[in-house]
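Sequence decides. Consider this:

===
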Amino acid sequence: MNSNRLPKLTCFEPRTIEEAIETKKEFGKDAVILAGGTDVLPLLKRRNIGARTVINLKTIPELSHIELKDNGKIQIGATATLRDIMDSELVLSSFPLLAEAASAVAYNQIRNMATLIGNLCVDNKCTYYNQSKFWWQTRADCFKRGGNQCYVVKSGEQCFALAVGDTVPALIALDAELSIVGPSCGRRIPVAKFYTGNGRKPYLLDDDELVCAIELSASSDGWRDGFLKKSVRGAVDFALAAMAIRLRPNGRKIEDIRIVLNGVSVKPVQAKKARSYLIGKDINNDTIDAAVKLILKESVPLSSIGTAVAVRRKMIAAMFEDLLHRLNPIS
């Protein structure tokens, strides 16, 4: 078997959300959702996932929108691509942080295909798990493959695959919410609460549910924000660390701040203790050093992709310092 080829698949092309939900309910874990396909197709080729039924959301016209709703929120549908995000005047004028994060994902060809919600729902990554079926033939399965061991943390009792979506820190910093639909009803959940911290099942999403939209509320004026991503080969690779910061200054002091990281742990990290410490403080070297210690204590960086823990810690510290100086209106 050539594991670089797709397995034999059954593809469904629903015309409505309701039809997609019914198909997902029927096949459950045996069905996988296809929006852009830039992550799902490689997983299928490597046999990292066993689904043999594909539900293509691109045949549902209503999911491709980026629009301003009557409630004043901007809604982004499940098949809106990262290129759509980068080119949208609505997004650029109201949420430039999101457009900046979208532009950091991979390269142009990928951004033209990949969707925002696909990037948000990208499967956790691990150097070991993301190998071919051929590679795994001589090794015992890890937790993520249904086994009982972790190759990253040798004595670990859970899966330590990393959450890696580049746009996730920006969405959490912007207080984005997800619209999730299922057979019985729909529900809303903040992006910040969507992640479980369990590498085997990274999201709070049932087998018969799908994420159909993201909603963002326009925030009050006075916020400054920025995004940084570090990876081995620039934007091409998944992040060794990605960080979004939203800062609202009051003169020389920090009135409010949001610090969110991804690519460093089993789920996105909100540096809440660092935020509490920084509110009311001036931006100076002592403040930054103290905040970095809190961020590193909260994030507990892992080494399962690309680099050692010590390098990742230094990277996080440098990114935080760079962003804070960039966003400081007094500097």
